[in-house]
Amino acid sequence: MTTAEQTWTESTTEVAGLSVRYLQGGSGPAAVVLHHSTGNIGWVPFYEALAQNFTVTVPDLPGYGQSERPAWARDARDIAILMSHFLTRVAPDSPTLVGLGFGGFIAAELAAINQDRIGSLVLVGAAGLQPDEGEILDQMLVSYGEYMTAGFRDEAHFQEIFGEEVAPEVRELWDFSREMTARLSWKPYMFNRRLAPVLGEVQTPTLVVAGSEEKVVPLSCARQYAAALPNATLEVVQGAGHLVDYEEPEALAALITSHAGA
Amino acid sequence: MFIGYFTERPYQDQESGYFGSTGRDIADLGISNREYNPRLGSDLYNRYLDEKVYAEEMGFDGVMLNEHHSPPFCMGGVVNVEAAILSRITQRVKIVILGNVLPIWEDPLWLAEELAEIDMISRGRLVTGWVRRTGRESVAHNAQAPFNWERFQEAHDLVLAAWTKPGPFRWEGEHYNYRYVNPWAKTYQQPHPQIWIPGVMSRNTVKWAAEHRYPYVMLATELEPTKNSYDYYTDVAKENGYEAGTQHRSYLFKVHVDETEELADQAARKYVEGPSNPFLEGNQGIVRPYLQNLPGMTSRTNLLPTVTSFTQSAARGRQVAHQEATGKDGSQVPEDYSSYESQKERMSIITGTPKTVIPKIRHVLEYLRPGSIFFWDGDGAMDHDDAMRSLRLMGEEIIPATREMAKEFDLKGPFEMDTKTNEPIEEGEAIPAGGQ
Fold it and tell me: Where do the domains of chain B lie, and which CATH numbers do they carry?
């Protein structure tokens, strides 16, 4: 997943006494990407595409990958508070905050708590709201392989990205990430009834993105975000599933660039 | 020697094609309850209760109950209901719950009250065990898997406090919070009933049981690993300043005895048939490892994860899942390992007439030196007649012979030797000190 020549750096900072690792690359205005519940496998093509126009920062969310676990954290809002302080340390100048899936849930919570920290918001296949139609796919009842496959428009595309045999270190990261996700989002699964009522206060310009072939977070969630946030627009990426960042990295980067005016 | 009787109480349905003697595949949490027939359930619950009453008549010291959620192989979804009924319809046997699934209880104070009532109604015959169970139970009652072990320990501490500490008091724990702990019902046995801990292979649980001086009940594990686990218990006991004795060691194993070798063979084969039970070797049950071992069910604590540490963690998680799913290391298992013949050969299933069964029980007792045992019978596709024939012969021949052998090997159970003090418990003593 990494490019032949390393275009990014790896650093750590401390938030609330916890070590947080982050990758950074590119140049331009700041964009911070919050990863999916399955963790961050490295400097993937989406970050590279985004780095053409932004200084891209990708933290391992606390408790994921190489970032220390906040044993006390119980929900997405706890991580949002930590990430708000992370932004103060690492990207203080009104960054564009991009949340992918569960990271979108955290980004929305962060905006609700402290919109002054961010210049613009991008929610991609974001969880966080109870869908009006359908249900968010429960990763706890399927194997992580099945769950990841469901994030793609079809199995062939999953295999194109990850190969027929997924690399052991990637499988281990998915397995490892599930534990932290289970600590943060169990009951209710992947949404917070206390989020929707406060979204109307978020004035941040927001781009809501979803894949037309979404099978993990129902498309209705994207519509609900777009309706609840006062300054939001909705973009549906045709042919992409839940993992728009893996399936259409260039198209997603272009949408974000256009939205943030970078 | 304490001798108990156990069956999973399988949901045997000859009509559905999934249960009964067909042994067809049932994937873990993969079967809808639309298959369930409450009329049949009613008959089976009553049958299994009747068999336990008969077990008491035949001279067993205890009847053991376990609890699972959602699978057809065990009807014990609310173990305290069966225990409550048995506490009234039996007179003498200990009612051994192995056990209540602590982490799935949202309100363990209610559990403390239920068990206290059972202990009182039975006039002090409750033995209460605790289990963590696997992902199946966490899913069924939506208990957060990563906190399974924490909840187990805190619920245990809360129940014991509710039983032993005068109320009212306040409990502000990590997972349980009460502003007023003051249950009116208290246990008949004081300070509280004996606590036994069942398990399969978890080192954590063995260690925890040994630290608390609770008897550890190995559940139908193979002889050598069982002995190794007892040795580990003994090591932990030493570290904690006491000698583990036979009273700390308990063993559940499959024994079916019958009138002729032919009948025994016909009936015991049914262990590997019936409503597919993944805990019965050779049965057709399919376990989904990712459900059995939900994220965080096993210890993967990592303060500062590195690639190496999460690699190890993940590996450990899968290994435990595999062990829980299969009870063994799959890479070393020959193909026919789980066949009835192979299990009989390895004494994973002990069956025959009293004449052939008794020497095998003798071997188990001599090799493992447990102070308490449970015969696991009447399971799989065995019907009521199979169960009753075996129970009668156990009463007539097996139990008396087992008691003699226990005397010969000096195997004393937790009602003869206090597990907390290693002192003998006087006969007729109303309050076993082991409950302290």
Answer: 2-288+337-435 (3.20.20.30)
> How close is the nearest chain A Cα to the Cα of B158, in Å?
21
- For A12-71, what is each residue's pLDDT tens digit? 999 999 999 999 999 999 999 999 999 999 999 999 999 999 999 999 999 999 999 999
What pTM was estimated for this model as a whole? Answer: 0.92
Short-list B222, B252, B267, B255, CA closest to B398:
B255
Are A123 and A207 in contact by the 8 Å Cβ rule? The answer is yes
pLDDT of residue B22: 66
Contact A57, A22 (CB under 8 A): yes
In angstroms, the CA B101 to CA A242 distance is 37
Domains of chain A: 8-260 (3.40.50.1820)
- Summarised one tens digit per residue, pLDDT across range A110-150 is 999 999 999 999 999 999 999 999 999 999 999 989 999 99
- What span, in angstroms and rounded, lies between the C-alpha atoms of B432 and B436? 8
Considering only alpha carbons, which residue of chain B is nearest residue A186?
B144
Question: For residue A156, with 0-12 CB atoms within 10 Å meaning exposed, 13-18 middle and 19 or more buried, which class applies?
Answer: exposed
Nearest to A69 among B147, B303, B317 (CB): B303
pLDDT tens column, B279-303: 777 777 777 888 877 888 865 443 2
Q: Which residue of B has its CA nearest to A169?
A: B311
Residue B300 has its nearest CB partner, among A66, A169, A179, at: A179
- State the smallest CA–CA distance between residue B354 and chain A in angstroms: 46
The model's pLDDT over B64-115, given as tens digits with 9 standing for 90+, comes to 999 998 888 899 999 999 999 999 999 999 999 999 999 999 999 999 999 9
| Contact indicator for B60, B52 with CB cutoff of 8 Å | no
- Which residues of chain B, if any, have pLDDT below 50? 300-333, 430, 433-436
Flag whether the ipTM exceeds 0.90: yes
Residues on A contacting B at a C-beta cutoff of 8 Å:
19, 65-69, 140-144, 168-169, 171-173, 175-176, 178-179, 181-183, 186-187
- Match 């777009």 to its residue by tokens: A226
In chain A, what residues touch B318 (CB-CB under 8 Å)? 175
Asked if A182 and B294 come within 8 Å (Cβ–Cβ), the reply is yes
Largest pairwise CA distance in chain A: 46
B40 CA to chain A: closest CA distance, Å? 30
